[in-house]
Amino acid sequence: MKTRLTETLIKNTQWKGKEVRLVDASLAGFYVAINKHTKTFKVKADLWVGTPGQKKKIRSVNQTFASVEQISLRDARTQAATYLSQIKAGTDPFKKTETYKYSIKKMVDLFILSRQEKCRRPATYDGYRQISVRYLKSVHNEPAADYELHKAYELHKKLTRDHGAVTADKTLKLLSSSYRYIRPRTPAGTIDHNPFEGFEYNNPKPKNGRTMTLEELPDWHEGLQMIKNPIRRGFHLTMLYSGLRRATASQLEHDWLDEHRSCMNIPGSAMKNGEDLSVPVSDQLIQIFKNASSCSKRMYPRSPWLFPTVGKDGQVTPIVVPREKALDQRTGHTLRRTFRTIAALAGVSDRNGDLLLGHKIAGIRGRYIDEPQLFEQLLHDQKVISHSIDKHMLRG
């Protein structure tokens, strides 16, 4: 039964063993619910959605929006009129917007998972995980929505001081990428900002890498003989004679060598660009691979790799680039640079020198080059480079 609502009527009406409803006569859908311990203002109406003539009932809204102690009857009637108007227009004013709370760690983990689902190289997303564990641990539990620019600068400054400019930039760029990934994938109000927009990174100039001269090769070879482990010796020789990347060389497997065609068939999973590569191999490289394979099968019978080792967990894994004192740290990327330099000194063309490194030829020229048809030329150049290395390293 509808009645003329007043403050006095609401105050004097008491609970009668069941809920008492005082329905407002002046505003349809607005009423006061009186229970044993509460007196509340409520609205009741049906929510219809759709075009005229084709509307569909979504639900019946029966919602408390305030108690009589919180606001006056006049204010309650005004609010109720607004709510009822919205319901009539097909909008539910009481629909809860789903929001999510993300910590920095959860946000970064979701970004890393997305890279894995995009089939990025394992080295890429494993590298992200290491950055997160090593350098973001101090902010893992902070809410991503509350992280501000000044905090980012403080973290960047600390990382630069403790771990260097490159590490600091990589860490903050991982955070920035995580924000860019997560923002459009969450409801409005979850994460509405990226504190790294306009962020000023260190952007250190790359240092020129170390390259051995031809005169250093005999001394390097002498140091190599001091390394007792034949697998490690073979790995360094492979790096020098092939120019392969460290990560690729460490994952070479017995079955990839095709001695008949003088090539090493490397699948895309072991390549930085994710594409298969057939590397021409000289007689020297074939002998290096055969020696390494023989040692590997004897020392690690079940290992598929040419250059296996035992990790900290006791499991057999591909070799990690060792920093050899006997070689005066002239290992890893230094040998790749040395290979490319020797190729240039031996008269190998820039195009073939780049292709032997596994680089793509830039621009339109690269798109029109059919690399498989250049294999014989590349094999010839690979032999020229190996001969030059032998000539200078083994002289005397």
Notable characteristics:
396 residues, alpha+beta, five-stranded mixed sheet, three-stranded antiparallel sheet, 14 helices, 43% helix
Q: Nearest-angstrom radius of gyration?
A: 35 Å
Q: How does the helix and strand content classify structurally?
A: alpha+beta
Strand order of the largest sheet: 1-2-3-4-5
Continuous helix count:
14
**Count of DSSP strands:** 10
Alpha carbon gap, first and last residue: 114 Å
Average pLDDT works out at 88
Explain the layout of strands and helices.
Blueprint: E1 2-3, H1 7-12, E2 20-24, E3 30-34, E4 39-49, E5 56-67, H2 73-88, H3 104-117, H4 122-135, H5 149-163, H6 165-182, H7 217-224, H8 230-242, H9 246-250, E6 257-258, E7 263-266, E8 277-280, H10 283-299, E9 308-310, E10 316-318, H11 333-345, H12 350-356, H13 363-367, H14 375-393
What can you tell me about this protein's structure?
The chain has helices at residues 7-12, 73-88, 104-117, 122-135, 149-163, 165-182, 217-224, 230-242, 246-250, 283-299, 333-345, 350-356, 363-367, 375-393, and strands spanning 2-3, 20-24, 30-34, 39-49, 56-67, 257-258, 263-266, 277-280, 308-310, 316-318. By secondary structure, it is of the alpha+beta class. A hairpin with a 6-residue loop joins strand 4 (39-49) and strand 5 (56-67). The radius of gyration is 35 Å and the shape is elongated. A 5-stranded mixed sheet has the order 1-2-3-4-5, with helices on one face. Strands 6-7-8 form a 3-stranded antiparallel sheet.
